[in-house]
Amino acid sequence: MDPAPKTRQNGPEPRHEGPNRLLSSWKEIADFLHVSPRTAQNYEKTRGLPVKRLGTRPTILEGDLRAWQLTSLHTARWWQRPGVLQVWAAASTALLIIAVAALGMFWRSAMARGALATARWNGPVLSAFDSGNRPVWSHTFPYRVLEDPDGHWPDPWLGDIDNDGKVEVLFIYPHVKREEEGWDLYCFSDRGKQKWSLRVSRLVEDGRSVYKPPYVVRGYSVFASPERDGTSWVAAAFVHHVASPSVLLVVDSMGKPRGEYWHPGHLNSVRTLDLDGDGIAEVIAGGVRHGEEQAALIVFDPREVSGAAHLPDQRGFKRMSPGTERSILFFPRSSINRRYEEFNCVDNIQIIDGLIQVTVNETVRPTYGYLVYTLRKDLSVLSLMPSVSLMNAHNVVAQSSGIQKWNASEEMTQLIKNVRLNRR
Q: pTM of the full predicted structure?
């Protein structure tokens, strides 16, 4: 019984021993190896087939070819050797584990990053962070921001302004080019992309001058849309960069204009509060009203913000309809204000426990002094307190002029009596 034939591996089975004749062509060499002449030629280049040349003819003894066939052609290549394969498998597995671990760490970090919680300036860069103080995005502006030692500029507002389930950032960009370019109000997405911006580009005129941009945003307030659609609107006050005109702008969640009111005098602060209990917040703006030369608090229905303050003198704006103010509250000038200043002015408005706290600047010399009015929702005065600096200013005046000491309680009572409320 004939033995079972051996299985050929990695090439043809070598020939049996025979005469050690000289093979002198690629065809003879190929026939011996049971391959094509082209493959035999490739073996010379890739597998080190030891042919010699007789002129241009390749030559090799059968014995030499058989020895090469056994040692080179039938030996597994490096990538087929078990040891190499084991090392390669181990290295590949280690690299895969490292890659999966790195991907997992990145994914956990990304998933752990929460919604936007704060935003801070650093030079010209605004950066947003989550509740764990992890950076979420940064945006670089062309100019660095100014320092704000007195805290007059509101912090960036963060919230879902358009009811899309994501947190937007609303902020003033208080850069160093204020006089040349003004300051705008920006709304950025949760990814740090600009959604819209708000600026004043209108040219206005009164009986004394023509006022060209730029304008500087002084304050803003975000409030629930009066259309009750789950979005928010924004009211923002802008003042001329060198003169007195101001404008109150109201826009919806997408930055679309909803109202525009022009005012003769600076509007320094804006807040919103539902004063009449109808579920719609009124817009409350404060500053100084020229023509009256008094600090003023102006109240609007956010759906009816238009026109301009109607004044009999030349401070009134040309080609504008009368303003739609719902109420105007005038704060009387104190004795020291009448002595040293041309007018008093609302500097800041705060809403605290449903009450309106209004800071009215009365003097900037000889020392800075102010009054703090606390108002109910019907705009009546609940209390009035002078600042320590205002009391010191009165004492300085008394000492320098020889007049009697200031009676703070008496003047506070008189000022409350002289607060004047005009309603439409």
A: 0.73
Q: What is the mean pLDDT of each run of 10 residues along the chain (424 residues)?
A: 44 50 86 86 85 85 84 62 66 82 62 80 94 94 83 85 96 94 97 97 90 96 97 98 95 98 95 97 96 95 94 76 96 92 95 97 80 97 94 78 76 96 90
Report if residue 276 sits inside a domain: yes
DSSP string, 162-191: SSSSS-EEEEE--BTTHHHH-B-EEEE-TT
Residues 6+ apart with CB under 8 A from 238: 182, 199, 200, 215, 216, 217, 218, 246, 247, 248, 249, 267
Residue 146 shares a structural domain with residue 57? no
Same domain, 63 and 122: no
CB atoms within 10 A of CB 13: 13
* Same structural domain, 263 and 393: yes
Number of residues that make up the chain? 424
- The C-alpha angle with vertex 314 and arms to 313 and 316, in degrees rounded to 5, equals 85
Among residues 155, 173, 191, which one ends one of the domains? 173
Structural domain for 119, as ranges: 101-173
Domain membership of residue 112 (yes or no) is yes
- Residue 371 pairs in a beta bridge with 360, 386
CATH of residue 47 = 1.10.10
Q: Which two tokens stand for residue 242?
A: 């060198």
Residue 2: predicted pLDDT = 45
